[in-house]
Write a sequence for this structure.
């Protein structure tokens, strides 16, 4: 017997072939299971919930909101003020237009009233002249007519040719208007009523006479019809209530704005004998 026969061996004993095969099969099965699991896809991950904190933005927000509100209020106030101003301007414009229309209406009404009054005064003057003539003719008769004719004849020695100074200028003015139209209330330059012509004639030499016949018949010294001088004012009717006036130009004639039919004429005193005369010059 060998001396080494009793020494134990350090090598592991060999496993039997059956055990080796069994272990190989187990290992292969485990690996196959892992491979199948891997091929099936990744494992389902659990959902992740994360809370994100947003930064605080309220800092200064109240100031901005207040400023915006104040600006909006200011704009609204401006718009309201503008609206009031526009309304006031429109109201004022309407009032001005209404006042203007009313003024025009009143002016037209006044003009119509004045025209009506002039027409009425002219009609009254004509009627008064007619009445006065009838009265004078009835009261005086033929003797008054003879007296008037004598007065005209005695005055015929005086004529416009020997008038001098202011009287000559007054007569020249009056004679230059012969042929102009007669218009009640007319004061020239191309249409006249009786007192308007007399006033303008004396105004040409700086003498300011009253406007109407009644006042002109007492504007100077009363003179007799048989003592007439060129430039004397003749009147028809009573002194202070005369309804017609003219200017004595000498030679037994006068110039006067008679009526709308004849206009301004130069006629003999016999044509329309006056009631009296007044001397201004």
């Amino acid at each position: 017997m060998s001396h080494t026969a009793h020494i134990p061996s350090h090598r592991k004993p060999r496993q039997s072939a059956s055990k080796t095969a069994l272990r190989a099969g187990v290992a292969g099965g485990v690996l196959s299971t892992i491979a199948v699991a891997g091929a099936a896809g990744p494992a389902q991950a659990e959902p992740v919930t994360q809370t994100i904190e947003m930064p605080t933005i309220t800092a200064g927000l109240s100031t901005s909101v207040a400023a915006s509100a104040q600006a909006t209020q200011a704009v609204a106030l401006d718009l309201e003020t503008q609206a009031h101003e526009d309304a006031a301007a429109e109201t004022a414009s309407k009032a001005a237009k209404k006042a203007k229309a009313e003024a025009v209406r009143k002016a037209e009404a006044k003009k119509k009233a004045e025209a009506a009054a002039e027409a009425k005064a002219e009609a009254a003057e004509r009627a008064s002249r007619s009445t006065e003539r009838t009265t004078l003719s009835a009261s005086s008769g033929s003797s008054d007519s003879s007296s008037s004719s004598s007065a005209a004849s005695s005055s015929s020695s005086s004529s416009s040719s020997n008038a001098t100074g202011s009287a000559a200028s007054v007569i020249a003015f009056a004679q230059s208007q012969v042929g102009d139209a007669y218009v009640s209330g007319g004061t020239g330059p191309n249409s006249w009523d009786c007192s308007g012509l007399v006033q303008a004639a004396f105004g040409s030499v700086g003498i300011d006479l009253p406007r109407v016949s009644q006042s002109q018949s007492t504007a100077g010294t009363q003179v007799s019809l048989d003592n007439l001088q060129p430039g004397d004012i003749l009147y028809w009717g009573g002194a202070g209530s005369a309804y017609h006036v003219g200017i004595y130009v000498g030679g037994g004639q006068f110039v006067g704005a008679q009526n709308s039919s004849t206009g301004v004429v130069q006629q003999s005193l016999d044509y329309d004998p006056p009631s009296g005369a007044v001397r201004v010059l």
